[in-house]
Amino acid sequence: MRAFAALAIATAASLIGQALAAPISGRLLSRSTGIVVTPGTVDDIIITADNTVNGTVHPSHNGTVSVPRIQATEKLSFALVNNFDGAQISAYVTGRDVDNNIVMLQADGTWYYPNPQGSTTPIAITGNVNIPLGAKGTTTNIQLPGYISSARVYFAEGNLQFFVVSIDSNGGAGLVEPAANNPSDPNAGVNWGFVELTNNDGGLYANISYVDFVGLVLSMSMIAGDGSVQTVKGLQAGAASSICNDLTTVAGQDGQPWDQLCMKDSNGKLLRVLAPTKYLDLAPDAFSSYFTDHINTVWSTYSTKDLTINTQSTSGDVACRTSGDVLNCAGDNRSYAKPVPQDIFGCNSGTFYIDRANDNAIHYAVAPRLCAAFARTTLLLSGGDVQPSLDSSSYYTTAPTHRYSQYVHKYETDNKGYAFSYDDVNPSGENAAGVVSDANPQLLTIYVGGYAG
């Protein structure tokens, strides 16, 4: 699961009825160019769990709705700081209100309630939901009119398009957001990024994640109720270009399509760097043999000695051994098959999929730790027979490894921000989460273009 799983946009079970399951049709060009986008129209939108917020439609409304019952304590304040060396920056806020209605924040500080009017084809949102930031060096202050969940605060160099679609006959609606890895999405040619958050009566949880892609660089800090400050500095300014350059270099060394993770416009301008799991949506056969020899060596190694998983819980240490093509762990309700690249890069499919309804506590603990070990290539290192036990200086030190994650962390200023779903698996005391949270937040500051504090 991604770092923000508990507050994620939508679950696969609630996907829109006509959601498209086929692989995205990408414009994969020569190895030196990466993916070149060709922004399309509403007909080119591909609806998935990653780019929809599912909820309900406010009864009898389409547009701004007055909500007088909102209390002042529910009105989270933001300071949006523009540190970006580029074109006009626009902000957008999306999510669900306390009644599960799909909402977007309008420039005048009120909620806009998108209504698909029963349409099963995405309809463009026409409300005044673009919040322009001032010039570089200025701060724009906004305030939410009420609690919000499964939310994102988007920032774009230019303008983004959002759509709404009917998902059922009972008033269900899906807010269709930009899709990072669809080269023909209407927003494909825009440089953008987002912060995820939920703010409710339990407080604020906000997160910066690079699990899907690296785009417009964002950072944040929060003033908590007691006056203390939590900060996530995120990536360095210009990090996407640095990551792309490193990926291009390593692609020339190992022959793997790391350079294809770089998504550019027709003029060669870099827009974003995709995580490998998102690239595999475009090219399912990529990296097909990348981990094969390593996996076979791991299987051979742990056929004659224990791999110990420290569950970092009351389950304690769990002994695992391979037998044939599976890994068995003591007390686990099921075994682990040899993973494929999508499993290792994504940590939420195949070998590492967790059945939330049926898997036991040991499986919940083993799967993330095992996947993190494969992603960071630590299973064959000295001390790697206990997971997790090695600190971050041992991660990504030998091939094959998760190069995208390696380079994301290389350019993080404070080593915070997930680069794959289980980046929070570390020896006790280490923290890679790009999270701020508090029960009584006073102010959330988001920096666009790099941290300055």
TrEMBL record:
The lineage of its organism: Eukaryota, Fungi, Dikarya, Ascomycota, Pezizomycotina. It comes from Mytilinidion resinicola. Residues 1-21 form the signal peptide. It comes from the Eukaryota. The keyword Magnesium does not apply. Transmembrane segments: none annotated. Keywords: Signal. This is GH64 domain-containing protein. Residues 73-436 form the GH64 domain.
